[in-house]
Structure formats: C-alpha cells, structure tokens
Amino acid sequence: MRVLGIDCGTECTGYGVVELRKDHSLTCVVSGAIRLSVRLPLANRLRTIFDTLQAILRQYEPNDVAIEDVFYAVNVKSALKLGQVRGVAMLAASSAELPVFEYSPLSIKSAVAGYGKADKYQVQHMVTELLKLPSIPEPPDAADALAIAICHLHTSATLARQRAAGS
User: Fold this and answer.
1) Is 132 helix (H, G, I), strand (E, B) or coil?
2) Among 12, 15, 150, 162, which residue carries the largest CB count within 10 Å?
3) Active-site residue among 61, 68, 119, 144?
4) pLDDT at 53
5) Which of 143, 156, 149 is nearest to 26 (CA)?
6) Span 108-125, pLDDT tens digits
7) Does residue 160 surpass a pLDDT of 70?
8) What percent of the chain stands above pLDDT 70?
9) Sign of CA dihedral 99, 41, 12, 54
C-alpha cells in the first residue's frame, strides 16, 4: 500500500509518499515541499499546489491520500487560507479518484511518536527512524507530510487487523 501524506501550508506545502511493503516495513518513496512566494496572489499559489500535487499523484500512484485535519487557529485569516489549501489538496486527490483521509495533529503524533503531545523534533526523529532515513527530512513540512502518511498506514493496518479478528 502506498500513501501520499500532505502537510498543507500557504507558503510551504509538504508532501511525502510512504509505502508499506509486504514484509510490513515502511519505506519513503519521495518527500519534498511545494514552496510558494507570498508575493504571488493566493489563486496562483493554489493553482501551483494543485498542479504539483496532480503531477505527484500521476508519478507515484498512491492508493490513498492523507492530510492533517483542521486545527483551531488564533488568526482567522490564516485559518481560512489554510482551509483553501486543504480544499485544493482534496480536489487534487478526488480528481485522481483517490480517497482522502484526515487525521488530527494528536492522532498523527500518537501514531508516529507514541505520544500525542510530542514536539516537532520528536516527530521528525521518529519519522527518520521509522523510515530508516540517513537524516531528518527537510524541510520540516516534508517530515510532517511523511508523519501523516505513516499515521494513515498504521491506522489502516490496525483497522484491517480488527476487521480480520471480527470475522
């Protein structure tokens, strides 16, 4: 199973494709970030995110897409812009006829670091360990996207085991 994790942002949107192999090991297929100039109009930034995500979806052919769920922000304007980026990410996935799964920051941190209040460094370190990477993925948005993908793979595997035990 292959999952594209997306860490949405208006200046930098991280992405990471993680594969769960038949031997149950996790491997990083690709990770990176879509860096956007704040000088560009928001509509242009959204188009760049959409186009880039579509290209990633075509190239790496994930089975599922996972994104971070909405969190509560102090700045309403920032929260609205983030919502627009999330919408574009969901549209890119649905245009490729892929299901989209949303996870709270608490769920992502718990799945990756074993602790829902883990700090950014702990999550980055665990992503590096779980994927057996030579160094922490850069930028941090890419590490976050990988964490989101890992969270989905762990959650899916747990649900599959529960379904198998129930039948």
Assistant:
1) coil
2) 15
3) 68
4) 98
5) 149
6) 999 999 999 999 999 999
7) no
8) 93
9) positive
